[in-house]
Design a protein that fits this description.
mainly alpha, 5 strands, 3-stranded antiparallel beta sheet
Amino acid sequence: MHDEFIKELLVSHRKLPVLVHEMILVEVWKQKVFPILCQLQDFNPKSTFQLYIVIHHEATIINLLETIMFHKDSCEAADDSLLDLVDYCHRKLTLMVSKTTREGAGNHDPYSLTGKTDMSSVEHSDLSFQLVKELQLQSAALEFEITLKALSVLCYITDHAVSISVINRMLCTHNMPCVLVQLIDCCPWSRFHAGKLEKYINGKWQKIPEEDHLKMTKLDGQIWIALYNLLLKEDCQRKYDFNSFNKNQLLKLRGFLTEVLVDQLPNLVELQRFLAHLAVTDPGPPKKELILEQIPEMWNHIVHENSGRWKAIAKYQVKEMFSPSEDDLRQQAKRLAQTYNLDVMESLIPEKPKCGSCGKEAAKRCSLCQSEWYCHRECQVKHWPNHKKVCQLVAEATKKLEKELHINS
């Protein structure tokens, strides 16, 4: 219900293009400014809290987009920014394929330090050096998570997109089917660690019992659904060029379409038939149609506007933004605590909170986890056996987050 409310709010106020622009802005900053910033001699941070907020902002937006792009009206509301979002997803997925292929399939570690900055010539104090290094590790870990979210967003776009420009961008400009084939081949969300199969599920690596080795994960399902949409939808088939290279790449999928996989996602039977037919035929070239194609603008505009100024931007930000005093940090932490106060956030939701036990309108909250509501003390006591485990987990996670972000009073 809350997801629906947020989605409706963003759609009605036309904020989806703003979200996409913000996300791409942070992406450019991480590629162009952040590496320079880490090399500056006068960059000796006492705390990386503010930098972490900027780096985490991209992850926050892509998480929000993953939630709301599930709905068709969100894709429609994104309007021209959908093209920029397709380009964003393509950049993330191709970088993941490149990295995984380079490191070797099955050995992918999202916590490895990608794009590591050469710190040998920089005279940092030991503390500053460790803080920057830790921040780079956090950024690398977030990048892996962001890319997996981008895959989910792309899947939803293939589900809902009807714009000729978006379809043309995915199929003709970026050749997304072949990118997805490469992802299935290298499978970066699966690895062998200490001789045991692990899969990246719900934000962490989990050991998979032997009997579940062939069980499809959410990511596996999304990538197959995206391929199904891109190859079998009529508009897409008319646009895609089934030349010899693309055909050979797509036929690799036949080796992955086992009976066990198809049993878990029955729609793949149609894809299996399509590939069998493709193997013995030579489809004609795509239809040439005279169209006025829209092109994405956000990335190019940001890079063009700031070209040649990246070092100056980094120096300015070190001086004005990322070297706060202890008082500044305390004030900022206080403002964030007020902004994300649960009472304030709950007040934005049109419906009154309901009691976790009886379902009636509630006015009191669990003092430990602050996440469950109750109408009376009796209901809280009655519900405690069911709520106890969740309450402890939420409370522990909150304390851990506060410790990591250095906002404990």
